[in-house]
Amino acid sequence: MGSSASLLHRTYFAQFFLSLHLFSVLYLASSFIAAQVGVRWVTPLVAGGALVSFIGIVWLAPLFVRSARSLAHFLAWWVVAEALLYSVFLFIEGQPSSPITSLLLGGAFLLSQATYLLGVYAIDLALERLVGDHEGVTGRVRTTALTLMNAALVIAAALSPLLAGRFSYGAAYLFGIAVLLPLALIAPSLRIPLAPAVTAAPSLLTSLRTLMARKPLRDAYLLQIGLRTFYAWMVIYTPLYLHATLGFPWEQLSWVFVVMLLPFVLFERLVGWLADTRWGEREFLFAGFGIIALSVAFFPLLRDASLLLWAVVLFLTRTGAAIVEAASESYFFKHTNADGDGIIALFRSTRPVALFLASAASGMVTLLSGSIAQSFWALAALMAGFGAYALFLKDTEPTPSS
């Protein structure tokens, strides 16, 4: 891997700015949609976005990366597409509400959900190419990438709510466009091949059969569904609950979100190292889901709590999530390689699958209970179930560091 070190570092750089762009409106999107077309459209648009995203990652992503051939070519058109989509959101905010602007908002949102995962998928394949057969460093490489990605998430969570609160939602989208510039500058140097010499993309059915036939891959997929369901549930309903229901202003929520996301930066690299060299992933997955379940169960009890207490409990939820994310990424990528790009696409499809499931399930629970708060108890029970499932994993063998 020594000769690839420079490319690996540049890929990390690209990962950071790509993530900073994608996360620039992550915690604002549902509130932006509600402000433009009404809160009743949030769940249908999120569910529709999940379907489009699934189609994009499973069917279109392998075709796109094989057409682009290298990460440099892929990012060239991806940066342009993302800048255009964010420009549409900027335009919509300045327009009076009408059927045309509503359709434009819906279309741009659906497309953005598809392009979101295309960029993540391309970085995945590039990292797998650079790791090659050196699976003993997979946990460290993957969690380094995750740490940089989540550092971008912390920065975006700090700045975007402040921009939205002091100026407008459009200011956050403008920030998202601005951070594409460093990505555009580094992209031409990333001539990392994304596709193998064979040009035919694997079919969905072939990839699905491989996934289901190999228990470690199947387990990793199901546990990733659990983690992504937690993320989706929280991204949709936590900002709405804290801002719209409890009335906390965006300026105050920005520091809460920063504290909440710190575990991703603090713990994931350590978990990756320990999974590579000490214990494997099973224990981390069980503990992580357990921490998520216990902390989320407190949400309905915190209606009159201070922001400081909310920050502590949210920090605990992401501590569990950081542990699960690091361990599940390490576990999955130790059982696949870059030539399994159809399998990697399916693994990344957990995001839209979970987003669809979370929007449907949380929407149903909220409808039946009449309260967003009550839906968090259902989420806690679900996370406890995934933690129990993790106990039955066949663990990987650690490779002691020299």
Report on this structure:
By secondary structure, the protein is mostly helical. The chain has one domain: Growth Hormone, Chain: A (Up-down Bundle), CATH 1.20.1250. The protein has 16 helices and no strands. It has helices at 5-23, 29-37, 42-68, 71-93, 99-131, 138-166, 169-178, 180-186, 204-213, 215-245, 250-277, 282-296, 307-333, 341-348, 350-369, 372-390. Helix 12 runs antiparallel to helix 16 (372-390). The mean pLDDT is 82.
Estimate nothing, just give the exact number of structural domains: 1
- The strand count comes to 0
The major β-sheet equals:
none
- Coarse shape: globular
Derived from helix and strand composition plus strand pairing, the structural class reads mainly alpha
Order of helices and strands: HHHHHHHHHHHHHHHH
Strand content: under 5%
State the distance separating the first and last CA atoms.
17 Å
Mean pLDDT: 82
The CATH superfamily is known as MFS general substrate transporter like domains
- CATH-derived architecture: Up-down Bundle
Uncertain regions: pLDDT < 50 for 5+ in a row? none
Name the helicity range. over 70%
Question: What order do the helices and strands come in, and which of them pair?
Answer:
Elements: H1 5-23, H2 29-37, H3 42-68, H4 71-93, H5 99-131, H6 138-166, H7 169-178, H8 180-186, H9 204-213, H10 215-245, H11 250-277, H12 282-296, H13 307-333, H14 341-348, H15 350-369, H16 372-390
Structure at a glance:
With 402 residues, this protein is an all-alpha fold. The protein has helices spanning 5-23, 29-37, 42-68, 71-93, 99-131, 138-166, 169-178, 180-186, 204-213, 215-245, 250-277, 282-296, 307-333, 341-348, 350-369, 372-390.
